[in-house]
Amino acid sequence: MYITCLDLEGVLVPEIWIAFAEAAKIPELKKTTRDEPDYDKLMKYRINILKEHGLGLKEIQDVIETIDPIPGAKEFLDELRSITQVIIISDTFTQFAAPLMKKLGYPTIFCNSLVVSDSGEVTGFKMRVENSKFTTVKALQSIGYDTIASGDSYNDLGMIRASKAGFLFKSTDKIKADNPDLPAFETYDELMNAIKGVIA
């Protein structure tokens, strides 16, 4: 029995931090997991920049409300969910994900949580588990699922490589060059066909 594990940002929706960086006019916040493999380091960097600029959760959530899924993402997800179980495994946060899940038709998502003070300041973050994407696919395999995984960033490579089939999607030239053995796709039709080829 198959279960497909998808990354969220860059695969189904635009990168939240890039959208916020543009709205807040803070280019330093454009750095993502495509640029920085160490997620702990990346989040501490982001939290420090938010603090410097006096920005909190509300300002980020206001921008997230304006973000729409990548064109074709909901249709892709709807079709995929009609042929296999799907879980979105993301290093985003519950406080960010809700409006996006509504626009995607409420798929299942496993993500992390922010630590937010009463004043709305983001003071930290709690990972659901260490190395959450890899750990989650290994846990799904331990209860009898074959996993298929797709994502675009460094933090997706663990789950992609641990899965029965794994694909890069809308990734960077550097990640593709560093992982030439991984099939890389740019369109939802290509990814859908590859997944169908596995589960057929």
CATH superfamily: HAD superfamily/HAD-like
Mean of all residue-level pLDDT scores: 95
Task: Kindly report how far apart the N and C termini lie.
Answer: 11 Å
Strand content: 15-25%
Helical amount: 40-55%
Number of domains: 1
Order of helices and strands: EHHHHEHEEHEHEHEH
| Number of helices, where a helix is a run of at least 4 consecutive DSSP H or I residues | 9
Extended strand count: 7
Overall geometric form? globular
What name does CATH use for the topology?
Rossmann fold
Instruction: Specify the structural class.
Output: alpha/beta
Spans with pLDDT under 50 lasting ≥5 residues?
none
Whole-number radius of gyration?
Answer: 17 Å
Query: In CATH, what is the class?
Result: Alpha Beta
- Largest sheet strand order: 4-3-2-1-5-6-7
Per CATH, the architecture is 3-Layer(aba) Sandwich
Largest sheet: 7 strands, mixed
